[in-house]
Design goal:
It is built from five helices and 13 strands. The protein is of the alpha+beta class and 332 residues long. A hairpin with a 5-residue loop joins strand 4 and strand 5. The longest helix has 47 residues.
């Protein structure tokens, strides 16, 4: 009986030892994915802010608050179409960055379509990839880092300039009780397109471009990223936009600030984001750490127990024939 039990334990030890790498290297890439129907909203505020009031003779004003609402909505229908040709799980996010003044009126809005691999977050180039209606070809990440984020720089796509540049890893920090990676990216002054939808009725971006007035932009972008899920738990920007050659539009100065402020995520959205990330990171850790390591320890324990039982079944000084006689029933 001891030998039979040791063989069973040995079989279980082999099973759990094989399951450990399978969970990490086979199951994890296939199970850890962004759902295609995900919807997410974040509200950020700049207190105070400098805004160009388009409805009051194009005056630059200091306002108590400007609000930026960022929405990400999964487009399941489009993702299924792209998956058929891409041959992998794809997520399509239709996003909108909406800037409103203190009175709630629209200052600017820029829609995007971001197409990426559901597991790696690498961009997938397909028809429809765009920013404000303009086709783009992204390189690098946007909005989210990969699962199991590394301590290194990443290429990060900037929607205003339609280009990618490094976002630098600046160290590990503690944020709301979590160990997170802190990243920074500085976009230098760059000429960027006018938004397609202007806050002035009847005025289009094409009409403004004909006057010779241009829009310039710079920002310092900061993210606190959970390294397990790759999800930012907090984000800030020191953002500034200018209109140059503004005298062409009848303004008194040639360079006018269109928007400036230190944009921070609102506290209630930070709390909800941290709670969501904490719940999701447990699932990732189960596949990448807890279960694989636990299975290795369990396999080692079962192997040791199997060897111990096998050793006990072979009593010293006892021949094979003696053990066989003991196993046979006594003759009547």
């Amino acid at each position: 009986m001891r030998r039979r039990a040791s063989l069973v334990l040995l079989a279980f030890a082999v099973f759990f030892a094989a399951m450990s790498p399978l969970l990490r290297w086979y199951a994890f890439p296939r199970l850890a994915k962004i759902p295609p129907s995900q919807y997410q909203e974040a509200v950020m505020e700049a207190k105070p802010a400098t805004l160009l009031d388009y409805n009051d003779n194009m005056k630059v004003k200091q306002v108590p608050k400007a609000t930026i609402v960022q929405t990400l909505k999964g487009n399941v229908e489009e993702s299924e179409k792209i998956e058929r040709s891409a041959g992998r799980d794809v997520v399509v996010w239709d996003s909108l960055s909406y800037v409103a003044g203190p009175n709630g009126k629209m200052v600017s809005q820029i829609p995007e379509r971001y197409i990426f691999d559901a597991h790696s977050q690498a961009p997938v180039h397909a028809t429809g990839e765009s920013v404000d209606g303009d086709p783009v070809r992204r390189e690098g990440i946007e909005f989210k880092w990969p699962f199991l984020t590394e301590k290194r720089d990443y290429e990060y796509f900037d929607a205003q300039t339609r280009t990618s540049s490094p976002i630098h890893y600046k160290g590990t920090r503690t944020f709301r009780g979590m160990d997170v990676y802190y990243f920074e990216q500085t976009v230098p002054w760059t000429k960027v397109p006018m938004p397609k939808k202007m806050p002035i009725k009847g005025v289009t971006a094409e009409q403004i471009a004909k006057t010779g007035m241009t829009r310039w932009y710079t920002t310092k972008r900061m993210f606190w990223v959970d390294p397990v899920t790759g999800a930012p738990v907090n984000g800030e920007e020191i953002h500034k936009e200018e209109l140059r050659n503004a005298k062409a539009m009848g303004m008194s100065q040639d360079t006018v600030t269109a928007f400036a402020g230190h944009v921070k995520m609102r506290e209630d959205y930070i709390d909800s984001t941290v709670a969501l990330v904490k719940s999701q990171r447990v699932l990732i850790l189960l596949l990448t750490s807890y279960l694989p390591r636990g299975f290795v320890v369990l396999a080692a324990g079962l192997l040791a127990l199997a060897l111990w039982l096998e050793a006990r079944s072979r009593r010293p000084g006892e021949s094979e024939s003696t053990r066989q006689e003991e196993a046979e029933p006594a003759a009547a």
